[in-house]
Amino acid sequence: MKTIPFSFDLTPGTFIPTAYDNYIRRQYSALKGQYLDKAAHEAIIAAGDPLSYEVYEIRRPELTGEILHGISILHPGKVGDEYAMTKGHFHTVRDTGEVYMCLKGTGAMVMETEAGETAVEFLVPGRVLYVLPNWAHRSVNLSADEDFVIFFAYPGHSGHDYSTIEKYGFRKLLVERDGQPTIIDNPRWGG
Ligand code: S6P
Ligand code: ZN
Questions:
Q1: How many domains does the chain have?
Q2: Which of 56, 78, 132, 159 is most buried as measured by Cβ atoms within 10 A of its Cβ?
Q3: What is the pLDDT of residues 152-177, one digit of tens each?
Q4: Within-domain flag for 10
Q5: For atom 4 of ligand 1, which residue has the closest CA?
């Protein structure tokens, strides 16, 4: 772990950090039960379960005062009409926010609170998003052929709670309708 201030570069084009400590890769099977079209999802998994997204983390101690940061690369894809997305999560320590900046591609952040408020923000390169404390967040790639790349930063003690979202998914989903990204209600929430 570094003990003096440091900097690093992002590889031109791919935006992969030139130095990182942790690399996470998630295949389509990591989102079991989350996509609307279960048959299409199973077919994609059966056909080789391709890589859906990758996260490059600059590791820091998981402590208040530290800022965890890195790069997330969500590859394009569709499951039925639904765009490729991350698992999404609340932070275990609910009152911790997160900053995202889109570096490449076209996507969205789907967000909600446990009380049922929902929000969707669309992201293009150069746009910065602030996810408020207490809001679960999931990124979605809306492009047919381009990676959706974002820089993220959040408090070191946040932690990740995936299980709350895994139960019913997010209240809103992003699907293609008449060639356009469209926000629909998730039927698992009774919509
Ligand atoms: C962490 C931050 C991102 C996500 C990444 C992958 O708090 O929100 O680094 O971890 O976008 O998403 P997920 O939901 O699989 O962790
Ligand atoms: Zn987060």
A1: 1
A2: 56
A3: 999 999 999 999 999 999 999 999 99
A4: no
A5: 72
